[in-house]
Amino acid sequence: MTADSIDRKSPWELYYGPNLGYIEEMYERFLRNPNDVDPAVKELFEKWGPPPSVSAGSSVNVNPPLKVTTDGSNSIKTIDPAYLKKIVNAGKLVRNIRTFGHLAADNDPLGLTPPPDTRLLEPSTFKLTDEDLEAIPASLIWEEAPETIGNGKQAIQHLKDVYMKSFGFEFAHIHEQDERLWLRRQAELVMSSKPMTAQERIGLLQRLIDVEQFETFIHRSFVGQKRFSIEGIDTLVPMLDEVVREVAHDGARHILMGMAHRGRLNVLTHVLGKPYAAIFAEFHHSANKDMAEGALGINTGWTGDVKYHLGAHRSVKEGETVETRITLANNPSHLEYVNPVVAGFARAAQDDRSKAGYPVSDFGSAAGVLIHGDAAFPGEGIVAETLNFKKLRGYESGGTIHIIGNNRLGFTTDSLDSRSTYYASDLAKGYEIPIVHVSADDPEACIAAVRMACEYRQKFHKDFLIDLIGYRRYGHNETDDPETTQPLVYKKVNSHAVIARLYAEKLKEKGFVTEEQVAALRKNGLAKLQAALDEVKGNDKNHKQPKIDDVGSKRRKKDIATGVSLKKLREINADLLKWPEGFKVNDKLERILTRRAGALDKGGKVDWGLAESLAFATILSDGTPIRLSGQDVERATFAFRNLVLHDPTNNATYSPMHTLPQAKASFALHNSPLAEASVLGFEYGYNVFSPETLVIWEAQYGDFANCAQVIVDQFITASRVKWRQQSGLIMLLPHGYEGNGPEHSSARLERYLQLAAEDNLTIVNMTSASQYFHLLRRQAAILNTEEARPLIVMSPKSLIRNASVASEPSELSEGSFKLVLEQPGLGKKADKVERLIFCTGKVAIDLEAGLELKEGESADAWDWLHIARVEQLYPFPKSDVEQIIARFPNVKEVLWVQEEPQNMGAWNYVEPRIRARVSDKTTVRYVGRPKRSSTATGFHNVHVIEQQRIISVALNRSTLNANSQGEK
């Protein structure tokens, strides 16, 4: 019998009795779900069909299976009834190697990881011998086995080499089969077929030497100064070089990077091109070599930041046509909070905002790269929040390349104490992100991992993670002694050769370089470093830190005309009330919207929602793109916006703002995930990268912005003076005391006022729809200019539908935003005014409601009182307040009235500013809630009593000059 004739016979002829019963059981599982059986068995069923039924009593001819010898020739072997069972077990072994081979991979430079249990990776566990594996054709257990691999033993050995040596691949958690198969094919076949050329290897060695010498040169030249060196994960730099090459080659015009401080200086100089001399100057001019992190002596900028927080830009050319700009984002010591900022950069770089409708995204035009810390990646929740952007319509960016710079320590904390997961990277599995673990001491494997990551991103537009496993040469910084907390680890570190030297030896052994060539590379690199230091010392004046500028006077004080003609407003309003033929709007909502049709006619009123829609529409007609995001922003938390309509019959959506004939720019509107920190960071990054775009983030409730405090503190309020980074971002924070308890009342106005300095913000608390209209248009007008500042808005809740805040149409067509509004009807007889009330926000409307004349009261009942609403709190409207005070010569007291507790709200901010503008004879008093630790009561009846007391005291003439104790 020939081998060919055996090949054509059914394998079921080899089995009978219990063995045939086993095959029938497998076939039944195959019929239910083909993927429930091993791939090798599935292939047999698909090729040969069902086995003969045992119950039918079929006779089975026993013929020997084909044995493939090591030289590839065929021979006949005596039949083994358990042959198919061996195939099944070999298939299980292959599956385990692919799934769990990473546990045995040799990618720990110091050997710190305890040996794992790898019995599931051994043939003996499945009762397989070498002879058994040699008898199995490789194609039965490895579908794509190359022709050079003939039998199962060879296949198993090759797969072990792939999955259990340099690389630790984790792909089994990827649900998309085409992605998983592509990744498997890349690992098993493609990576090994693309070795680095001799020229690439020598270039890689040169880069590793540059990285090493840069660190050791600074260490020797600036003794005792911190730099947070890269040593131990030196290969990160050539990996980033490779990312730049690959992504630029694929056509990306922008590469946006974010990383913490470890290794940042090395990345700045070697990847971003910051000159050695510029970095050395920052060390050379440190006023005190022992200063703590953040000290002024090592700052740059206005108030500046430490050198290992600063970012940079660089442009590189791929060939003659494509120019790629690399940006490393500035980042504070809140390690991972730069992640969403970079994600915002990337999406902004990809979006075409030049036409009406949603922006059109080109994911290939830009790529994000994030370098994480191994303790911070699982430890900081902002990482998970940012990973969640991966597939969200408003936030995805076509895949981010993540690299964990894994030095096995968080500050001084061992991994055992800093995470509950086996790997630092395990968080990424929940987001189906492919993971490759690779040793920083294996530079060629690191480059191969980067190439796989870039190809995966290019093909599938999804994230990829590389766990770069290394160590940390020094302590948390170079002044820190790590041996007190990790003595055994640093005993190994101190005797471990640096990566450049290890790789040089490897290349010398393979004949790629000689000892003389390596020595020349080191000599040339050292000469460049020394020349740069000599330049700094010899030209001291050229490299001194810039002076701190007086940024407070940068903003010009001028009114900006923001009115829009009624003719244009009416045209826009009519177009906003049109929807496609056949599109049905919710009946209740349709009635609400159609009431807006006459709002701009004589006698009409413009409410808050319409004022906002008209502002957005006119801004779009001016050619300024808008991006609005937050939880439920399409309809708004308080259901006043409704810019995306839903057809109740089929849930089709339609936004009139997207088909507006007047629009000349895009309008992006996205309901956000339930994550304030990452979303606000994303919007900040989007705005910084595209400063011409009006970017707005709305909190569901203003209180929820607390969850984004790091973004507010470290980026939004301070980036201008730390990094000269401009932003015109708007934060809409619903604020107002309406008896809804502690977490739904206060947007913490006091916090933003505390953070206001050096003309860094605009903070408002408005009381009319027209004011909101003009404010939005004013902010749009100053975008991408020196005037631009982040705008913090205490936006209303119940006032949205309060008739008192609705505006006459003429108030939108005329004028501009007013810093202070005076209560109509009061203050007409200036010499009779005894009490002057200043307030801001919703309490002004409560006061207005309390001014209604009671039965029997004369028209001059309120001549003793005047009320002024401070609509813009920062910058404080000094001249407006001074002019109002000066108009009333007989004022006995000035009250600041607020609904927040005394230690909150604006009182502590405005009190000295008001007191400085009144005479010594005028009393300045506070009326509001007493000091509290919680923002508001949770009992509605208590809230009502408190609110009534505030209004009663403020509007009661008998309380003139009452002392504050009696007032309470």
Automatic annotation (TrEMBL):
Domain of life: Bacteria
Catalysis: reaction(s): N(6)-[(R)-lipoyl]-L-lysyl-[protein] + 2-oxoglutarate + H(+) = N(6)-[(R)-S(8)-succinyldihydrolipoyl]-L-lysyl-[protein] + CO2
One Pfam family cited in the UniProt record for this chain: 2-oxogl_dehyd_N
InterPro entries: 2-oxogl_dehyd_N, 2oxoglutarate_DH_E1, 2oxoglutarate_DH_E1_bac, DH_E1, KGD_C_sf, ODO-1/KGD_C, THDP-binding, Transketolase-like_Pyr-bd
A GO molecular-function annotation: oxoglutarate dehydrogenase (succinyl-transferring) activity
Classification via CDD domains: TPP_E1_OGDC_like
Keywords noted in UniProt: Glycolysis, Oxidoreductase, Thiamine pyrophosphate
Listed cofactors: thiamine diphosphate
E.C. numbers: 1.2.4.2
Transketolase-like pyrimidine-binding domain: residues covered: 606-802
Known role: E1 component of the 2-oxoglutarate dehydrogenase (OGDH) complex which catalyzes the decarboxylation of 2-oxoglutarate, the first step in the conversion of 2-oxoglutarate to succinyl-CoA and CO(2).
Similarity section: Belongs to the alpha-ketoglutarate dehydrogenase family.
HAMAP family on file: SucA_OdhA (MF_01169)
Subunit note: Homodimer. Part of the 2-oxoglutarate dehydrogenase (OGDH) complex composed of E1 (2-oxoglutarate dehydrogenase), E2 (dihydrolipoamide succinyltransferase) and E3 (dihydrolipoamide dehydrogenase); the complex contains multiple copies of the three enzymatic components (E1, E2 and E3).
Protein name in the entry: 2-oxoglutarate dehydrogenase E1 component
UniProt source species: Paenibacillus glycinis
Underlying gene: odhA
